[in-house]
C-alpha cells in the first residue's frame, strides 16, 4: 500500500513545482529584459540568476525523490541522512540569499553606515552558526522510515527556526524604523523605493515566520501531524525561491520606471545643468587675449556647470537607491554626493566667440 505521508509529499511537491514553473514562464520576458543585462554589474542580479535556476534544478530533484518515496523503494538510514543533509544545505543557501538581498536594502537605507553593516553581519553569522551547530542533531536525531519519510523530527529544529526568525525580524524592524522616521522633505523617487523595499521585506518576513511557527506547533505536539517534519522543506524552499525572484524583479522594474521618467542616465546632456545669467549684469574679462575688444561690441555669457565625478563614472550601473542616498540624511551631505561647480564664461562678439573656464 502507498504511504499516505509519502503520497501527500508527492502531491505538495508537484503542486509547488507547477507554481514555480508558471512563475518562471510568466516573468521570463522581464528577466531577460531587466536582469540579464545587469548580471555582471550588480550583486542582486547574480543572486537572482543563481537562486532562480539552482532552485528549479533542485525542485526537479525533489519531485524525483518524492515519487521514489511513493513507489516504496527502500533506502538505507545513511541515504536518508544524506537526503536530510541536502535539505538543510539547500534551505541555508536560499535563506542567506534572500537575507543578503534584504540586507543590501537595509544597508542603502542607512546610507551604507558601518554600524548597520556590522549588525547585519552579526545576525547573519549567528543564524549560520545556529544552523551549523544543530544540523548534525537534526540529521542524526530524526527517525526515518525505509522510504526516508521522517517519522519523528528532532527538537533542534526549534533552535534553528528561532535563529531564522530573529534574523528576518531584525531586517524587518530596521526597515520599518527607517520608513517611519522618513521625513516629508524626501523626494518622490527615494520614498517610493523605500516603500517598495519595506513591502518586500515585510511579506518575506511574515511568510517565513508563519512557516516556522507552524513547525514549532507541530514539534511541540500542539498540532499533532506527521506532515510537519516532511513538508516544511518543500514549502520553505518554494517560499524562498519566490521571495528572491520577486525582490530582484520588483527592484529592477522600479529602476526601469525611474529611468523612463528621467530619461536615459547615460545621456551626457543630463550630467550638467545650465544656469541662465543676466547679460546686463556681466562685466567683461580684463584679459584682452581671451576676450579681445571689438568695435562691434561684446558680451560675456557665464554658465555654471554642476557635475559629480562619481555619478558620471558609474552612470548606467548605479542602483536607484545609490542615486538618492544624499537625500536620506537631513543633517549631513557626503563628499561623494556634493556637486562640483565650474564657471564657464564665454565671450560673444560680433565676429565670433571664445570660451574661458
Architecture overview:
- By secondary structure, the chain is mainly alpha-helical.
- The chain folds into two domains: 4-262, Up-down Bundle (Rhopdopsin 7-helix transmembrane proteins), CATH 1.20.1070; 268-356, no CATH class.
- 62% of the residues lie in helices and 8% in strands.
- It contains ten helices and five strands.
- It has helices at 4-26, 28-35, 43-71, 77-109, 114-141, 157-180, 188-219, 228-262, 309-314, 320-323, and strands at 143-144, 150-152, 298-307, 340-349, 353-356.
- The strands form two sheets. Strands 3-4-5 form a three-stranded antiparallel sheet. A two-stranded antiparallel ribbon has the order 1-2.
- Strand 4 and strand 5 (353-356) form a beta hairpin.
- It is globular, with a radius of gyration of 29 Å.
Write a brief structural summary:
By secondary structure, the protein is mainly alpha-helical. Helices cover 62% and strands 8% of the residues.
How large is the share of residues in beta strands?
Answer: 5-15%
| Name of the CATH class of the largest domain | Mainly Alpha
CATH architecture of the largest domain: Up-down Bundle
The helix/strand series, from N terminus to C terminus, equals HHHHHEEHHHEHHEE
**Can you tell me the residue ranges where pLDDT is under 50 for at least 5 consecutive residues?**
270-316, 327-336, 338-357
List its traits:
3-stranded antiparallel beta sheet; DUF6533 domain-containing protein; Rhopdopsin 7-helix transmembrane proteins; DUF6533; 8% strand; two-stranded antiparallel sheet; transmembrane; membrane; 357 residues
Amino acid at each position: 500500500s502507498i504511504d499516505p505521508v509519502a503520497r501527500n509529499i508527492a502531491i505538495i511537491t508537484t503542486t509547488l513545482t507547477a507554481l514555480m514553473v508558471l512563475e518562471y514562464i510568466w516573468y521570463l520576458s522581464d528577466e531577460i529584459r531587466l536582469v540579464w543585462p545587469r548580471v555582471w554589474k550588480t550583486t542582486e542580479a547574480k543572486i537572482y540568476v543563481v537562486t532562480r535556476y539552482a532552485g528549479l534544478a533542485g525542485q526537479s530533484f525533489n519531485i524525483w525523490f518524492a515519487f521514489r518515496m511513493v513507489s516504496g523503494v527502500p533506502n538505507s538510514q545513511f541515504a536518508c541522512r544524506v537526503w536530510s543533509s541536502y535539505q538543510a544545505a539547500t534551505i541555508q543557501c536560499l535563506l542567506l540569499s534572500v537575507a543578503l538581498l534584504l540586507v543590501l536594502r537595509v544597508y542603502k537605507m542607512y546610507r551604507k553606515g558601518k554600524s548597520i553593516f556590522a549588525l547585519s553581519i552579526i545576525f547573519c553569522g549567528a543564524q549560520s552558526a545556529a544552523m551549523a551547530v544543530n544540523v548534525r542533531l537534526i540529521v542524526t536525531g530524526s527517525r526515518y522510515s525505509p522510504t526516508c519519510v521522517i517519522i519523528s523530527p528532532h527538537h533542534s529544529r526549534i533552535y534553528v527556526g528561532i535563529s531564522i526568525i530573529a534574523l528576518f525580524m531584525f531586517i524587518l524592524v530596521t526597515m520599518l524604523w527607517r520608513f517611519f522616521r522618513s521625513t516629508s522633505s524626501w523626494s518622490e523617487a527615494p520614498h517610493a523605493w523605500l516603500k517598495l523595499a519595506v513591502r518586500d521585506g515585510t511579506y518575506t518576513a511574515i511568510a517565513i515566520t508563519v512557516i516556522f511557527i507552524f513547525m514549532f506547533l507541530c514539534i511541540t505536539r500542539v498540532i499533532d501531524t506527521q506532515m510537519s517534519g516532511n513538508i516544511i522543506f518543500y514549502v520553505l524552499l518554494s517560499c524562498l525561491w519566490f521571495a528572491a525572484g520577486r525582490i530582484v524583479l520588483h527592484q529592477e522594474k522600479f529602476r526601469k520606471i525611474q529611468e523612463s521618467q528621467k530619461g536615459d542616465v547615460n545621456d551626457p546632456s543630463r550630467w550638467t545643468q545650465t544656469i541662465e545669467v543676466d547679460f546686463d549684469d556681466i562685466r567683461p574679462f580684463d584679459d584682452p587675449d581671451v576676450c579681445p575688444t571689438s568695435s562691434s561690441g561684446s558680451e560675456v555669457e557665464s554658465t555654471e556647470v554642476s557635475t559629480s565625478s562619481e555619478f558620471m563614472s558609474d552612470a548606467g550601473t548605479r542602483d536607484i537607491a545609490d542615486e538618492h542616498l544624499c537625500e536620506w540624511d537631513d543633517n549631513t551631505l557626503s563628499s561623494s554626493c556634493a556637486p562640483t561647480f565650474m564657471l564657464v564664461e564665454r565671450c560673444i562678439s560680433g565676429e565670433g566667440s571664445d570660451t574661458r573656464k
